[in-house]
Amino acid sequence: MKKVYEGKTKTVYEAEDGNYLLLFKDDVTGDGDIVDPGGNTVVGRVEGKGNASLRMSRYFFEILQDAGIPTHYVEANLDNNTMLVKKAEHFGSGLEFVCRLQATGSFIRRYGKYAQEGQPLDYLVEITLKDDLRGDPLVNDETLVQLNLMTAEEINNVKKTTKDITRLIKKKYDELGLELIDIKLEFGRVEGKIALIDEISGDNMRVKQDDRILLQKKLCEIVCG
């Protein structure tokens, strides 16, 4: 198979059937010595972390498909740490939709004059460009339209879907006694329709148990068993 992309936590290969194969790695992101799923720098490796991310992704993709939410997911191979997905067309070089339930992380760094750490947020959706060199800058709806990255209708569609997905995942965590803080999702066009792509794991969300952020492997143990 041909390697098409080397990411921080996954390697992407082009499969022979036109789909893509995602290989989940044990690399973790963060800032300095602190592991942070929202970080843009690889700060180390944790044995088994890639498999945990894959298990969680399979778990949640199957829940979303049962709920009728389009995704790029086809199947997962836990033995090989791989997930087969449908080919997706990105919006530009990629956009990320962050749904926030509490103020923390970069939100506090930007708006700390007006917000307090842990302040409740009502499914606030922020959009960022995937651009590590520029720190994944925020972008507003009108800018996306004028840059021809998305139409206004597509933006509204994805924002609604982002909230719907967050509510489904929050409901599951509530049942497990966990607290979802925020989640970062990526969308693209799959077979002509907007669909959720990339992954759904501890790599792109913050979840607390007893006021402590759970790392990927521990979160997977609780959610997937």
Structure overview:
Strands 9, 10, 11, 12, 13, 14 and 15 form a 7-stranded antiparallel β-sheet that branches. Strands 1-2-3-8-7 form a 5-stranded antiparallel β-sheet, with helices on one face. The chain has 2 domains: 2-85, 2-Layer Sandwich (Phosphorylase Kinase, domain 1); 89-215, D-amino Acid Aminotransferase, Chain A, domain 1. 28% of the residues lie in helices and 36% in strands. The model has no long low-confidence stretch (mean pLDDT 93). α1 crosses α5. With 225 residues, it is of the alpha+beta class.
Task: Name the features.
225 residues, alpha+beta, Phosphorylase Kinase, domain 1, D-amino Acid Aminotransferase, Chain A, domain 1, 2 domains, seven-stranded antiparallel β-sheet, five-stranded antiparallel β-sheet, 36% strand
The CATH architecture of the largest domain is 2-Layer Sandwich
Radius of gyration from the alpha-carbon trace, in angstroms? 17 Å
Give the mean pLDDT. 93
Globally, the shape reads globular
Q: Helical stretch count?
A: 5
> What sequence of helices (H) and strands (E) makes up the elements?
EEEEEEHEEEEHEHHEEEEH
Spans of at least 5 consecutive residues whose pLDDT stays below 50 are none
- Going by CATH, the homologous superfamily of the largest domain would be ATP-grasp fold, B domain
